Amino acid sequence: MAHKINLALQVLPSVPGEQVYAVVDEAIAVIQASGLKYRVCPFETVIEGTYDECMEVVRKAQEVCFKAGASQLLVYIKMQIKKDEDVSIEDKTGKYD
């Protein structure tokens, strides 16, 4: 799949309550460092890239959460994929920016 997709990623780490945001911030840092277009939202972060690029970010985000102390993760992923064209964040939310 060479076309760009949108992938929404929500990671819920199993850590003491006061550490949740710090661990989630580690996952967001992976997304930021990826070079892919993204948007942080209150419940999830939306990433734009090829399927393989997005899934690599998902894998790395999970790894850093475990390194940051999570004993377990609940990971929720939603994807929008079109057969023959790109999907962009702006197409869906640009009129609200």
UniProtKB/TrEMBL annotation:
Q: Which organism is it from?
A: Chitinophaga tropicalis
Its Gene Ontology cellular component terms are: cytosol
The record's PANTHER family line, in alphabetical order, gives: UPF0045 PROTEIN ECM15
Question: In its UniProt entry, what is this protein called?
Answer: Thiamine-binding protein
Question: What sequence ranges are listed for the domain Thiamine-binding protein?
Answer: 8-96
The Swiss-Prot or TrEMBL record describes its family as follows: Belongs to the UPF0045 family.
Q: Which domain of life is it from?
A: Bacteria
